[in-house]
Design brief:
about 30% helix; alpha+beta; five-stranded mixed beta sheet
Length: about 70
């Protein structure tokens, strides 16, 4: 499954084909939704910045809270 990479300033957002956010990168860390399949994670790993750390959120609620904080 493919994801779309959108850049906004120094932040990057990855969206699934249905438009839902599956990962985002900010301040050198890429946060990935726990509902992502291995195929989506692989696609994100290929497209994320080389120096970024990958952080998988333990729950979807935590991922959405982090995303909401980033959007403020």
């Amino acid at each position: 499954m493919s994801v779309t990479k959108r850049e906004s300033g120094s932040d990057i957002v990855f969206e699934a084909l249905n438009g839902s956010v599956v990962a985002f990168c900010t301040q050198g860390v890429c946060y990935v939704s726990p509902v992502c399949t291995s195929g989506i994670k692989s696609s994100i790993l290929i497209q994320m910045p080389e120096n970024a750390a990958l952080e998988e959120s333990p729950t979807q609620v935590e991922f959405l809270e982090l995303l909401a904080q980033k959007s403020k």
